[in-house]
Amino acid sequence: MKRFFALLILLAFTVRVLSAVSALIVYVASYKDTSILPLPFARKDALNMKEVLSRIPGVKIELLENPAGGDLIREFKKWIRGAKSGDTFIFYYAGHGISKGGEFYFIPSDADPEDEYVWIPFNRLKGYVKEYAPFDVKVVWLIDACYSGSVVKGRPLRAIRIEKEAFHADTNQVIITSSTGNEISHEMSDGSGGVFTVALVEGLKGAADSDRDGWIESGELYSYVEKRVEELSGGQQHPMRRGEGDIKIVANISGKLKELDKKLFDLYFAGKLSELEYKNMKALIEGRSCTGEWVEKLKKGIDDYLSGKIAFEAFVEYVVKVYAGKVKCGLEATEGSTQKEAEEEYVQERTAFLKLKPANDLAKGAKVYIDGKYAGEIGGELFVKEIPAGKHEILITSEKIEDIKLDVEVGEYEAYE
Fold first, then answer.
1. Helices (H), 58-157
2. What is the reported pTM?
3. Mean pLDDT for all residues in the chain
């Protein structure tokens, strides 16, 4: 019996290792031919995709920036050759694309707008999948093209029409494009990126997991993105899907991350983790920037815990307590800012914990306002809220008790009780 049990564990571990998820993220934001319109949002969109996929355990990511045609072909072939039976491969493209004669073409950075023979046919990439990947490898194509409505300055919109017949999904493949027909792929007014990729990122963070089974499937992702893009574009943009069946793309870890944060907070509150250890772990969980030689150890530990490779107790004992106090974490650096600026901003945003303990049952259910904003209710034995360090006005109000007003001032790593 013991041998049989051990064999089952070995087989389960082997399947987990071999069934991998790999993503190739490609963007082309600038072109050697100055007559081709640059696409500054392509870079932002690609980096947003990289960031969300990097938060999912087990996803291997490669980023290809402004590739020439030869570079795109070479890197794609190298990438798809790494596929093993049962793997899921995600290809994301942000840049110009052209449909012509029933074929879709990717436009590399060294493209000649007048010479289609130097464009990259979509069918060529799909051909490499057939040639190099095992038959049961699943491929999800996410294509965010036609940002500005025209590839070449002054050329008409019809040049980049997305023809439905140009997209055919082979077996075990799904294609999702940013728009249909001659629609323009719109950008967010706040500069956060193209609406298609914004919707993709939201969906991959967990919003697309409509059945709450812990997986983002291709059908769920498309359903979410279709509705979200229509909403964000005011009905002017409609994504398109090709391919039969559902492909499990990635795990939905948003709930698991929130649960992990809560578990670590409970340990901190119980005095089993230091404030610094908890705050650094919270920063990593939320995707904020951290520096130090042990950051990768902590990230791997989080991935191992989320994927079930390590128990929570072992994760805390051999990862959190060993490494969390040895790194420095700040806010996530924005585009154009440096890590140093992000860390300085983090220092200015120090936080502390406000803890309110009701003296009797009359205080339970009271509403708490911090600086005039509703912060929650005192629902149990203790109300805890993370607040910025500094001066605050606290109002506790209930029909059962008289209003209580407090003026407090707290510093970093302090608790006001």
1. 69-81, 122-132
2. 0.65
3. 81
